[in-house]
Design a protein that fits this description.
The protein has four helices and three strands, in the order αβββααα. The N and C termini lie far apart (33 Å). The chain is globular and about 40 Å long. It has a single domain, classed as 2-Layer Sandwich (Zincin-like). With 116 residues, the chain is mainly alpha-helical. Helices cover 51% and strands 9% of the residues. The structure holds zinc ion. The site of zinc ion has 4 residues, from helix 2 and helix 3.
Amino acid sequence: MNNYKKSRYILHRIYKMFRAKKIRFKFDSNLKKDRYGQVVHDYELDGWLIRLNPLDQPKEGIISTMIHECLHILYEDKEEKEIIQLEKMIYKYISDQQRENFLILVSRRFKRKYNG
Ligand SMILES: [Zn+2]
């Protein structure tokens, strides 16, 4: 599978996970920093909740960060290094249209209650 196809495939797995696991997103500007002073985003597997610090301005952008945290949930056992590689690959190979679609689907996941 080439990188383009692989990126599409993983993106569809993320969308499938959105539906099956009822993933939620939340902004939390009080998320702590790590020992290097880097802003930490996190996720809870139990609550299927991804918390993002809106004050963070990663140079890769918030969409990349969202993809990154989704990948952690999708691939529970993968190491940080592998997750970063996948994140960069997906962000590079998806189209602008796919970026827009991703953002639209994520934005719906900010609702407090799941409406089906
Ligand atoms: Zn990570």
